[in-house]
Design a protein that fits this description.
Blueprint lengths: L7 H7 L10 H19 L4 H7 L5 H12 L3 H5 L25 E6 L2 E11 L4 H15 L2 H8 L7 E7 L7 E9 L9 E5 L2 E9 L4 H14 L12 E5 L10 E8 L1
Antiparallel strand pairs: 1-6, 2-4, 2-5, 3-4, 3-7, 6-8, 7-8
Helix pairs in contact: 3-4
Length: 261
């Protein structure tokens, strides 16, 4: 069996989509497996079917499809050195603490609560989620769902929420993405409900235009705040909170909510 061993705290960091690596942990592991498979194809005489099984593929066909998608050539061509291969090297994290750029945050404890909204399933492979999530936001703006969610917001978190529910199984490439709002009461027609458990939350202020400000904040949280605190991510969905207003303005306010342990 092929094993990847990560120090536990690092694994929690990487599971936060785009926080440091800008790809999901599942996508990184897929690319790393196929990198090692390519090296083995070109340096050993092991059977292709055995290599496919070793690196997590049930059939040669599934292995060949994934291999071609990443490297642009078949396993047989790689074995015969008939093309260029891509190499995704062992991942390392370098942390630089910067005290001159402070973060405004608070720690709160919140009972379980409900969100109502819309959900779509995206594939993280090849950046589909990065391309399609902005289109989803455009759709909810155009069809009035955004205004509806603002009108339904009656909970403690004020605003429209972006919630990414990733699969912690490294072989899964799928994620649920919600555009929602906190709402106490019956689920309105046409919307879905997501329940979040009671937790301790880190609430981080974000000031500045989207998407640059919130992307910078995510990286600062995971590269600076977590390494210098005694908290770790709790491992269930993290939330981006978008307030009413014009998100391209330099004084636009948003928040990042991260469950802590």
């Amino acid at each position: 069996m092929f094993l990847f061993i990560f120090e536990a705290r690092t694994l929690d960091f990487l599971h936060s989509t785009f926080a440091l690596t800008e790809i999901t942990i599942g996508e990184y592991l897929r690319r790393r497996r196929l990198t090692l498979a390519a090296q083995e194809l070109s340096t050993t005489s092991n059977k292709i079917i055995d290599i496919a099984l070793k690196y997590g593929y049930d059939t040669p066909e599934a292995f060949s499809k994934a291999f071609r998608r990443l490297h642009g050539l078949t396993p047989s061509q790689a074995r015969n050195n008939r093309g260029k291969l891509k190499s995704y090297n062992r991942l390392s994290i370098q942390v630089t603490l910067k005290g001159e750029d402070p973060m405004n945050y608070k720690i709160i404890e919140k009972e379980s609560f409900s969100l109502v909204g819309v959900k779509r399933v995206f594939n993280c492979e090849n950046g589909e989620n990065q391309r399609e999530i902005p289109k989803m936001w455009e759709d909810v703006q155009a069809d009035g769902t955004n205004d509806l969610l603002f009108s339904l917001n009656n909970g403690g978190i004020k605003g429209i929420l972006g919630v990414c529910v990733t699969k912690r199984n490294s072989h899964s490439q799928l994620m649920d993405y919600w555009i929602a709002t906190e709402h106490a009461g019956p689920t309105p027609e046409g919307l879905l409900t997501l329940e979040l458990p009671a937790a301790k939350w880190g609430v981080f202020e974000v000031h500045g235009p989207m998407p640059e400000a919130i992307q910078k904040a995510w990286k600062q949280i995971y590269s600076e705040w977590f390494p210098s605190s005694h908290y770790e991510p709790a491992g269930f969905p993290e939330i981006e909170v978008y307030s009413a207003g014009e998100p391209w303005k330099p004084d636009y306010y948003s928040e990042i909510w991260i469950p802590l342990k």
